[in-house]
Amino acid sequence: MLSYQHAYHAGNLADLHKHAILAAALAYLTRKDKPLTYLETHAGRGLYHLDSPEAVRTGEAQAGISRAEAEGWLPADHPLLQALHGIRAKHGETAYPGSPLIAAHFLRRSDRAHLAELHPAEHTALTSVADFATIHHQDGFRMAQAICPPTPRRGILLIDPSYEVKADYTALPRFIGQIARKWNVGVIALWYPLLTDSRHRDMTGALRNAYPDALISEVGFPPARPGHSMIGSGIFVLNPPWGLAEEASRLERIFRTIR
């Protein structure tokens, strides 16, 4: 459960999909002069560098955020690019923000953030860049259960496990149901991979049945390497902010052009 390290995959096509939707949601939520809470169950280290040995080894960022910038997939005023430029101004041109630092770009002094990360090395790295948040060195599902409903009550929860444990696929609909009952106004976002064996389908089917008005956005893309099992990215969003469905549709159109 503690072997996954996102440094090998930071900035890849799945990150592009996930982070573009997250940034759009945060940009909308922070337009209103009302405080909010940001929660994340699997925060990672928060900051990555695309010239690191891990990133260079896989080359996934070159096919993801680097290509997106070079070919203009996102408009210049897109919230993800705004966050990316802000992080680079502070941490250098090779920096790439994980979701905690994307959130930090939008959060205001009145907002609150809770980040959970169980991996010891990732947790240590996270504490050095996420002083805006309360950082929990514990299981992220337990953290969310303990805090929800949060104060401020308005806010967003990002669930982004590594899925190294196959049981996550069956446990997640139940977990989301528990959180939604406790926090019915919360924006609950779940990222999941699309794999060649389609193991996500039972999970998304259960979520569709339980929450027919939720947003589900799925995009496909070529595998990062021959034989690689991830061939797409999916996001489920309960209580999606206004305009997020349109942003998801726009991204889906872009991804259909990727070869």
Description:
Helix 1 (13-29) packs parallel to helix 6 and helix 9 runs parallel beside helix 10. The protein has 259 residues and is of the alpha/beta class. Helix content is 42%, strand content 18%. It has a single domain (6-255), classed as Rossmann fold, CATH 3.40.50. It contains 11 helices and 9 strands.
Ends apart, CA distance between termini: 32 Å
The total of beta strands comes to 9
Cα-atom radius of gyration: 17 Å
How many domains?
A: 1
Strand content: 15-25%
The proportion of residues forming helix, as a percent range, comes to 40-55%
The CATH topology name reads: Rossmann fold
| CATH homology superfamily | Vaccinia Virus protein VP39
Mean pLDDT, as a whole number?
A: 95
Question: Helical region count?
Answer: 11
Strand order of the largest sheet: 5-4-1-6-7-9-8
CATH architecture: 3-Layer(aba) Sandwich
Binding site for S-adenosyl-L-methionine: 19, 42, 99, 117, 139-140, 160
GO molecular function, one term: 23S rRNA (adenine(2030)-N(6))-methyltransferase activity
Site (Interaction with substrate rRNA): 4
Active site: 160 (proton acceptor)
